[in-house]
Amino acid sequence: MHPETPVSAVLVAWGNAWLAGHVGLDEAADRIEQVAGPVVVDGVPLRSSLADMRLKGLGELRLALPAPGDPLGLSGPPPFNAAAIDAGEAAIAVLPQGNLGLVPFPDVRGSSYSGVGFAVHQAGPARADLPSVREAERELAAVMRAATEALDGVGGPGGAWPSRLPDGELAPGYPARAHRLQALAARLAAALRLAGRRGLTAGELAARDVALRELDRAVRRAQVACHHGILEER
């Protein structure tokens, strides 16, 4: 889907805030649907689906923001990984009887209904090798410095970040460090989407591509870490 705001990230943030008792189910669902429009999970309305998963022991939600060659947050099986990489995002519901992978897709019905559906897949265990908020913050700072140095010598349009970019939003209960890092990561993610190539030489393109790929990876790792930040405090 690759939306401006990954709906899986909003689901994870507000779903975890609800599971931790910081918000009610109605508030969490309302905030998710403010971003996505009406949401169904395997054809079931969002509120009912979340409530049912909680009755089955839902303990937490995890975020995956993969890209080709970088299955960030994914641990299989292959059908789920492939669907999540194609969508560019997924949420993972951690349940005692086996995790479920939730992959969003546009849910358009006729001319008047537009929302998001989540296809449900079997998912592997939650990844244990993902960075903490502190680790992702250090990594992003280092990559930003390297990217700035690499891009300083590259001409063409898009050399400077746009002055006004959207902040990301977490939910109540997340630590302040996670909120700060998510705001930065969201702005950088928007800037990466706007980065242009027109007018660059082949050499400039190569230099820019390397810097932007590294920055993109660090931004996605930071966003995943932020959305798991509420789980670090348990």
Describe this structure in words.
By secondary structure, this protein is of the alpha+beta class. The protein has eight helices and six strands, in the order ααββαβαβββαααα. Strand 5 and strand 6 form a beta hairpin. Helix 6 runs antiparallel to helix 7. About 5% of the residues have low confidence.
How would you summarize what this structure contains?
The chain has 234 residues and is α+β, with helices and mostly antiparallel strands. The chain contains eight helices and six strands.
Describe the structure using short key phrases.
alpha+beta; 234 residues
Biggest sheet character: 6 strands, mixed
Indicate the mean pLDDT.
Answer: 86
Overall outline: globular
Task: Briefly note the structural class of the backbone.
Answer: alpha+beta
Question: What is the radius of gyration computed over CA atoms, rounded to a whole number of angstroms?
Answer: 18 Å
- Strand fraction band? 5-15%
Give helix % range. 40-55%
Number of strands: 6
- Total DSSP helices: 8
Low-confidence parts, pLDDT < 50 over ≥5 residues?
155-165
Strand order of the largest sheet: 2-1-6-5-4-3
Write the layout of secondary structure elements.
Layout: H1 7-19, H2 25-36, E1 39-41, E2 44-45, H3 46-55, E3 60-64, H4 78-87, E4 90-94, E5 100-109, E6 113-122, H5 133-152, H6 176-194, H7 202-227, H8 229-232
Helix pairs in contact: 1-2, 5-6, 5-7, 6-7
